[in-house]
Amino acid sequence: MRSNSTGIAGSYRLTLLAGAAAFAVATPSIAFAQDADDDDDAALRAPDNGNQIIVTASKREQTLQETPISVSVTSGETLEQAQIRDVLDLQTVTPSLRVSQLQTSSASTFIIRGFGNGDNNFGIEPSVGVFIDGVFRSRSASALNDLPNVQRIEVLNGPQSTLFGKNASAGVISVVTRPPQFEFGGAVEAVYGNFNTVFLKGDITGPITENVAFSVDGSYQRRDGFGTIVNLNEDINNRNRYSVRGQLLIEPTADLSVRIIGDYGKIDENCCQTGTLAIGPTTRDAITAVGGQSPIGLFTNENFLSVEPVNENENYGVSAQIDWSSGPISVTSITAYRELRNFFNQDVDFTSADLVTETRDQAVDTFTQELRIASDFDGPINFLLGGYYFDESISQNSELPIGEDFRSFAAFNAASAGFFGATPELIGSQIPFLTPAQQIGAGEAALQAAEAGANFGIGSILGGDFLSREFFGLNNESYSVFGTVDFEPVDGLVFTAGFNYTDDSKDFAINTIAGDPLATINLVDAFIGVATAGTVTSRDQFLALPAAQQQGLAAAALNPATNPFLDLAALQFQTGFLDVPNAIEPGQTNDDKFTYLFRAAFQVTNEVNLYASYATGFKASSVNLSRDSRPLLGDFVPAPSGAFANVPAPRGYFNSTFLAPSSPITDAGLATPNLSTGSRFAGPEEAEVYEIGFKGQWDGFGINIALFDQTIEGFQSFLFTGLGFALANAGEQSVRGFELDATINPADGLVLTFAMTHLDPVFDSFTNSPIGDLSGVRPGNIPSFSIATSATYTHEWDSGTRLISRVDYNHESNEQISNGFAAFGDFATQFKRDTNLVNASMTLALDNGLEIGAFARNLLDERDILTIFPGVAQAGTVAAYPNAPRTYGGVVRFKF
C-alpha cells in the first residue's frame, strides 16, 4: 500500500488540490496495495485489514495514518505482484520518486520532488539517502541489486534531519526486509520471460534454538540484452546478477534482541544502450571517414561500439542491530561495515570508431554507527534522542585511453576546417572535394608539421596511450546528534520539536596526468617564447618586459593570422590539470549545521488526522572526483582580465599563464599550462520545507493529501560537459506542489488506488551554471504531473484458492528533458519526454502454497527518452538513453 503526504504552498494550489481530490473520489481509479504485520503472511493477503499499514518512518512503529510525515509505502506484496525486483522500478508505483539508470549498471540517481544528484560521481553524496534495514548506503551503486524478502519500502519526502543521522536534504528511501522467524517457513520462485529472462529467488527461515532464529535468502537474475552491438554481434543492456544474505535473530530475553545481517551482491553486465536524436557534422563526416558507424534513431535497439562495455560491481557488508527495552525506555544500536567495489570500461563516443574509452576502478569502504534512545511514557511528553557516526574512504583510478582511430579522426577534422595552415593546394573550397582518405592525409601532414615545429615526436599528438589518467582519494568523517520531543497537552493534539547537529569533514587528493604532449603546452605562451627567441619562458620574464612590448606580443599571440599555433587548440581535449592538495588548495572541506523541525499534528476524529510542519535540512559539501575538477574561481583567475582585457582575441585567451592576472595560484607559481577554473567541490545544500497534510481513513476508503513548498539553497547541480562533469551550486532551487494518495475498496476483493504528484520547480537563482544564467528557468526533466494508479481484484473460492489480477498505470507529463548543453546553446532544449506505462499481472494462488502467474511490464511497448547528453568529441550530436521495451513472462512460486 502506498500513501503520500507533504507540505504547504500558495492558495491557488488549494483549488488544484480540491479538483484532484474530487477526481480521486469520483473516479475510484486506484492507489495502494495492502500491507500489514510481516509475521503473518495471511494478514498481508487479507482484503479486510482496514489498510492499517505499520511503518517506522518516525523511528517508532505507527500506522500510516498516525504518522505525520510525507511518506509513501509500497508493500512486499505489491512488489511481488507487480514484478518489481529492484529500486529502479519502484518509481512506477511512487509518483514522487524518480529513478534513472544511465551510463553504467551502477550509475543511478534517485530524485524526490525534483531534487536529486550523485549519479556517476562517487565524490557526490546523494541528496536522497537510501537506507536498507537502517543502514545507510552512501552510493547508489550499493543499493541496486535485487530486493528479495522485502517487507516494505518507505519513501520519505523532504529533508529528514531529525530522524536520520546521515542527513539527506531531499528525502529518504528506507527498505525494510523481513527478520528471521521462530516458525519454520520460506518461499521459492522461478520466472522465465522474453529476452530469455531467468529469475530465481528463495528464502528460508526458522528456529535454531528457543531464542535464536535464522533466515537465508538469495536471488539470481539473467537476461539477454535489449539491444545489439551490431558490429560486434553482442547484446547490450543485459542482466547478470545475484545476491545472498544470511540473518540471525537472537532474543535471550523478552527485552533484548540482536539482529545480525551479512550480505553479498554481484553484478557483471554490459550497460547501457544509447540512441541518437541528432547527428552533427563531426559524427556524419569524421566518424564515417575513419570507418565508423553510429546508431541512427533512438528506438532501433542497434548500437555501434568499438568495445563491449564491462560493468562489474561487488557490494557486501555486515550489520548488527541491538534493541533493548526497559519499561518506557528503549535503546537501539545499529553498527555496520560495508565495502563496494565498482569497475567499468566503456566506449564513451558510442560509435564503432575506436576513438576513446573510459575506465574507472572504484572502491568504497564505509563504517556507520547509530545509537538511539526513545521513550514511551503515559504522560504528555515523549522523546527520541540519537547519535550517528559515519566514516568512509573512497579511492578511484580512472583514465581515457586513446583508440587507434583517434588521430585519423582528428586529422580529418583538422583538414576539413583548414587548420594548421594546411598545404596551399588544399586550402578553402578544394577541401570538400577530397576523398576522406585525402582529407585524413592532408590533416596528418599538418599534424606532423606541427609536431616538427614543437619538437614533438612524429605521431605523438593524439597518438599515445591515453588522453588523461586520474587518481582520486576521499576520506569522509562525520557525526551528528539528532532528536525529537513530542508534547501532547490534550488527547490527539501533538506538538513536535526536533533538531539535528551535523559536523562533516572531508579530505581529498587528486592526481592527474595529461597523456597527450599537446596538452602540456600553452599555444599563446609557446608563440611568445618563439617570438622572443626563447628569452621569455615564464610569466615573471614576460611581466618584466616593457608594457608596450607586452601589449604587442599579446596582440600577435592571440591573433590566428599571426599565431598559427592557435589552430591546434581544437585538439587539446584534456588540459590544465593541477593536483590537490597544494600550497593554495588544502583539499579539505569542513561543514557543520544545526537544523530543526516544528510540527503540529491533530487527530480530529478516529478517521481524520491533520498536520502542519516547518523543517530545515542539510547536506555537506561534495567533491568533484572527475577530470573536470579544477581550481575554484578566486583561487585562480584565468585570462582575459587586467592589462590585456582590451586585446582582441577572437578565439579567446586559451588560458595563457603569461597573460593571466594575479591570483593565489598564479602568484605561487603553481599554474599549469592551459589551467582553467572549474569545480573542485560544491558547498553544502540547505533545505527548507513547509508542509500541511490531511490523512483520512474510513471503512473501505482512504485519502491522503499534502501541500508543500520546498527550497534548497546551494543545490549541487551536476552536468555532463562532453568529456567530463561540472559540479556547481545553484544559488536556490525551489518546488511547490501537492501530493495526493487515495484508495477505495468498492467491493469485496477489489482495491482501487490513485496517486498523483504535481511539481512546479524553478531555479530561483543559478547565475553560474555551466550553460549560463538559469535564474527563473524551470529545471529540466521534472514532470509537472506524475500519476500512479492500480486496480487489484482478488477472487477467492471456498477452498481458499485465490485468483489475483492487477493492472497499474504510470504517467509522467510531457516536459523538457534538458536545460541545454555547454557547447550546444539552446539546441538541446527542444527534446521532451513523457511516460505512459501499463503493467499487468495475474496470479493463481492455491491453498497449498503453490502460485502460478503471468506478468507484463510496459505492456503497450511505449518507448520514451530517459535523458540526453552531448556526443563525446562530436559537436552537434545529441545522444540519449531509451527506456526498456515490453517485458513479459511466467512465474511459479511456492510458499511454505
CA-based shape: globular
Q: What is the CATH topology descriptor of the largest domain?
A: Maltoporin, Chain A
Q: Class by helix and strand content?
A: mainly beta
SS field, number of helical segments: 10
Low-confidence stretches: 1-51, 422-429
By CATH reckoning, the class of the largest domain would read Mainly Beta
CATH superfamily of the largest domain: TonB-dependent receptor, beta-barrel domain
Strand percentage lies at over 45%
Q: How would you sum up the major sheet?
A: 22 strands, antiparallel, barrel
N- and C-termini, Cα separation: 24 Å
* CATH architecture grouping of the largest domain: Beta Barrel
Proportion of residues in helical segments: 10-25%
Computed Rg: 30 Å
Tell me the count of domains.
Answer: 2
Tally of extended strands?
Answer: 41
* Whole-number mean pLDDT: 85
Protein name: TonB-dependent receptor
Membrane topology: Multi-pass membrane protein
Main location: membrane
Keywords: Cell outer membrane, Ion transport, Iron, Iron transport, Membrane, Receptor, Signal, TonB box, Transmembrane, Transmembrane beta strand, Transport
